[in-house]
């Protein structure tokens, strides 16, 4: 089976979908792997590094896409490349399906089996192919590093002959994968960390990392069966803001990571809350690309509001591109491996498997994802 791996063309993207150790793994499974020339250069992998582990090098995207049984990439495919793939081709990438209705329709009409890696269920078996987790984890780490860089205070307590320096205070809103890594990173740097999430189950995890959980009585919040947060009512949201305002005002760095599956991120920090913060404080809005948790945050910009730096830089995992590529590549390799028939040496599109049921959006000219259909109906 031919696997084509396409070079990333999104401006500024330094992550690469597949690195040589994963190519090695796929070749050993019996796949023919063709990578686009220059695939790994942004992470210092030369074409020769891929050739050494058995890949061939393609130069024409058109030919590569036309011959592939499986296409692997990082970001969603460009519209004009969908028709270049042959019917029945399995396309695996981030797809952002809820915001890409036209693209999903095009993939359906072209008979492509499009896998959206974001839709892989958050189960124990699927953990090794969960790109949302691997990349959010790094995003959480980067957010703290950015906060430390832009704050004009140190994070740890220091007892020095010149006096005792108090530790900086970091407040993290939203404690999923990114938030947990942000807590761990801020703690390692010596900050005093507080955190909040609407899912009450998170309190124990926050405490186990040595941070304080900010308690807010919002009544029934709960979580979906997949562990995602439920949208708050307007009354609950108002109450949350009131309590968050106090914690934000006391913080030197606020990191927001709150997301709602398949919908825009909730707006949690408003301008009134920002104006109550100390000038010189820093906010990092990790949800800026999906609507933003912070009023006034702008994608890919650092803006100053009432003396507070509001950081809305996108693609945080891309700032540690080599590690992010290593993890993404490993996730992709594990996905292909999971569905690989080791005897016949072919990809087995097992529609009974719950991972495939969750992640497959289009197949055989139809939209097959029940989750996609139900969310798009609303
Ligand atoms: P996410 O990116 O969807 O959201 C980030 C966090 O924001 C979540 O913790 C959510 O509860 C929180 N949030 C939403 N609205 C909020 C609000 N108004 N105020 C404060 N916080 C708010 O989350 P994620 O990191 O993708 O994790 C989602 C779920 O999946 C979690 O339950 C996580 O434990 C679970 N998970 C499971 C596995 C696994 O078992 N394989 C792997 C990764 C994640």
Tell me what you see in this structure:
There is one protein chain. By secondary structure, the chain is α/β, with parallel strands linked by helices. The chain folds into two domains: 2-129 and 321-377, Rossmann fold (3-Layer(aba) Sandwich); 136-314, 3-Layer(aba) Sandwich (Rossmann fold). It contains 13 helices and 19 strands. It has an eight-stranded mixed β-sheet, with helices on both faces. A seven-stranded mixed β-sheet has the order 11-10-9-12-13-15-14, with helices on both faces. Strand 14 (302-305) and strand 15 form a beta hairpin. Helix 1 (20-29) packs parallel to helix 11 (321-338). It is globular. The model has no long low-confidence stretch (mean pLDDT 96). Bound molecules: nicotinamide-adenine-dinucleotide (NAD). Residues 122-124, 127, 130, 132-133, 136, 173-179, 196-199, 227-229, 232, 240, 257-261, 266, 268 line the site of nicotinamide-adenine-dinucleotide. Nicotinamide-adenine-dinucleotide binds at residues 122-124, 127, 130, 132-133, 136, 173-179, 196-199, 227-229, 232, 240, 257-261, 266, 268.
């Amino acid at each position: 089976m031919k696997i084509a791996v396409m070079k990333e063309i999104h401006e500024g993207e330094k992550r690469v979908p597949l690195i040589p150790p994963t190519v090695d793994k796929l070749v050993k499974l019996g796949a023919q792997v063709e990578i686009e020339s220059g695939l790994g250069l942004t992470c210092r992998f030369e074409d020769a590094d891929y050739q050494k582990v058995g890949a061939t090098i393609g130069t024409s995207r058109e030919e590569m896409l036309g011959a592939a049984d499986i296409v692997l990439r990082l970001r969603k495919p460009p519209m004009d490349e969908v028709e270049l793939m042959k019917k029945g081709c399995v396309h695996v990438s981030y797809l952002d399906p809820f915001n890409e209705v036209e693209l999903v329709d095009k993939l359906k009409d072209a008979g492509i089996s499009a896998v959206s890696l974001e839709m892989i269920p958050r189960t124990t078996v699927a953990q090794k192919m969960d790109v949302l987790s691997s990349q959010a984890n790094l995003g959480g780490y980067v957010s703290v590093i950015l906060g430390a860089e832009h704050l004009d205070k140190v994070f740890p307590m220091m007892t020095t002959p010149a006096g005792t320096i108090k530790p900086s205070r970091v407040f993290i809103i939203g404690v999923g994968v990114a938030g947990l890594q942000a807590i761990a990173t801020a703690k390692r740097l010596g900050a005093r960390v507080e955190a909040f999430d609407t899912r009450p189950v998170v309190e124990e995890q926050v405490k186990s990392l040595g941070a304080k959980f900010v308690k807010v009585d919002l009544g029934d919040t709960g979580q979906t069966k997949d562990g995602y947060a439920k949208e708050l009512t307007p009354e609950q949201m108002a109450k949350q803001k009131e309590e968050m305002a106090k914690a934000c005002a006391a913080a030197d760095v606020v990191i927001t990571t709150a997301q709602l599956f398949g919908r825009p991120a909730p707006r949690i920090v408003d301008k009134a809350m920002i104006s109550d913060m100390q000038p010189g404080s820093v906010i990092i809005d990790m949800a800026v690309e999906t609507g933003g948790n912070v009023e006034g945050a702008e994608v890919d910009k650092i803006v100053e509001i009432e003396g507070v730096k509001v950081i809305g830089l996108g693609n945080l995992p891309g700032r540690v591109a080599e590690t992010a590529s290593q993890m993404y590549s490993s996730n992709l390799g594990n996905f292909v491996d999971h569905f690989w028939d080791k005897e016949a040496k072919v990809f087995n599109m097992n529609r009974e498997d719950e991972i495939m049921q969750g992640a497959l959006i289009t197949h055989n000219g139809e939209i097959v994802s029940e989750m996609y259909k139900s969310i798009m109906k609303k």
